Amino acid sequence: MKDTTCARRPIGYFVHHQGRGHAQRCAALARALPEDRPLTIFCARDDIFGDLPDHVEVQRVPSLFEATGDEAPGLADMPTPDTLHCAPVGWPSIREAMATLAQWFRDADPALIVSDVSAEVAQLARLCSVPHVCVMQHGERGDPGHMAAYRGAAGLLAPFAEALAQPDWDAEMRGKMHFAGGLGTGPLPDRAAARAALGIIEDARFALVLSGGGGSGFAQAPFGVAARTFPDMQWATIGHLQRDWHATDPGNITHHGWIDAPELWLAAADLLVSSAGNSTCAQVLSAGVPWIVVPEWRYFDEQVCKARALAAAGVAHCEPHLPSSAQAWRRAVRAATDTHAPGRQRALVSDAAARDAAHWLDALAERLWAPAPSLTTQDQRRIVA
Q1: E runs forming strands in the chain
Q2: What distance in Å separates the CA atoms of residue 33 and residue 354, rounded to the nearest whole number?
Q3: Rg (Cα) of the chain, in Å, rounded?
Q4: What is the model's pLDDT at position 4?
Q5: DSSP state of 381
Q6: How far apart are the first and last CA of the chain?
Q7: What pLDDT is attached to residue 1?
């Protein structure tokens, strides 16, 4: 880390290491922050951020969610109060992670910390007298734990467009929000160039399935049904799939697993099928093609609520589960095609999302620590009166 003796108060950033979106938006913000604003990232992994600027450091902390075997089994049944979510008792790893954060709060005297995402880390910051910013996610999050984190936050960072805001977010929350549609994602390649790179014939019909990394992924079998239903269309899947022993794939579908350049595949597609992860949604919106969204299970119904928001905004056709027959696939594809609005889709992502969010975060840090304005003589007279 370079010399920051003349730098301003540092910012901290807690990053949940599961899935790719948390790290991607953190890295995008890190690269966009001013060089005189030191940033310390706290995460259970230090290999998921790519190249970072010199004013950014990554400090590993134990996972808050994964047991190590050193836990006290006799404490496992202690009930969790409504103000907390994942706060098991008797975990040395959690004590170490929280102690590391508290020590940094004392030593670094930070401007603020961003929590992406942990209501417990957000509340720890507030208890340690440090301002925090919560990264917003969709979902049924009106519980006391989430609301304590939101109400106590100095700001709320929403990594999606304002058109996808949930109707239950009240005026107090909306007043603290910065919307950053497309944060952590970049522009897609040219369609013709992408097809040439992948060896896809220019006029071939091509459907792509994106199976996210935050959970167990889609099951394989439904896409064999889809490919058989549309034999004149090439099908491909990327990401993790659950392998079904009974799946029977026709010759027009291939499974590629994890790949290094999903942007090429997205740019080449005529039809997209995906879950409702935040980064996945931002990338698909950039593609501007007919889109079928199928939410995966997540805590607090995160993807269910995100799918509802996409449908309400008119940018995707949403199914409650993967179609299970040829007839159901035909209905879903027809609905996605008939309601397709590419301009509306692309309007929900911005190439400047990282720059604008970094400016908002930096300005928020400055405003929070600005000295109180001096009272004029006239103001002092009013107070005395």
Answers
A1: 11-15, 39-43, 56-60, 112-116, 132-135, 155-158, 177-179, 205-211, 218-219, 233-239, 241-242, 253-255, 271-274, 291-293, 317-318
A2: 9
A3: 23
A4: 43
A5: H
A6: 54
A7: 44
Whether 10 contacts 111, CB under 8 Å: yes
CA separation for the pair 258, 93 (Å, rounded): 30
Q: Which are the contacts of 378, defined by CB distance < 8 A and separation ≥ 6?
A: none
Phi, psi of 57 (to 5 degrees): -130, 155
Note the pLDDT tens digit of each residue in 277-326.
Answer: 998 999 999 999 999 999 999 999 999 999 999 999 999 999 999 999 99
Q: At residue 142, what is the residue type?
A: G
Kindly report the three-state secondary structure assignment for every residue of 185-232: CCCCCCHHHHHHHHCCCCCCEEEEEEECCCCCCEECHHHHHHHHHCCC
Under 8 Å between Cβ of 217 and 240:
yes
Report the amino acid identity of residue 309.
A
Residue 121's SS3 state is helix
Model confidence pLDDT, tens digit, residues 19-55: 678 999 999 999 999 999 999 999 999 999 999 999 9
Give residue 375's pLDDT: 61
The pLDDT, as a whole number, for residue 6 is 52
Show the low-confidence residues of the chain (pLDDT under 50): 1-5
pLDDT at residue 377, rounded to an integer? 60
pLDDT at 3: 45
What is the β-pairing status of strands 205-211 and 155-158?
unpaired
Query: Do residues 285 and 160 make contact, with C-beta atoms less than 8 angstroms apart?
Result: no
| 3-state SS, residue 167 | coil
Q: Is 268 buried (19+), middle (13-18) or exposed (0-12) by CB count in 10 A? A: buried
* Cβ atoms 124, 98 nearer than 8 A: yes
CB 24 within 8 A of CB 35: no
The number of residues in the chain equals 385
The dihedral region occupied by 296, where left means phi > 0, alpha psi between -120 and 50, and beta the remainder, is beta
- Residues 77-83: contacts with CB under 8 Å, at least 24 apart: 82/143, 82/144, 82/145, 83/123, 83/144, 83/145, 83/148
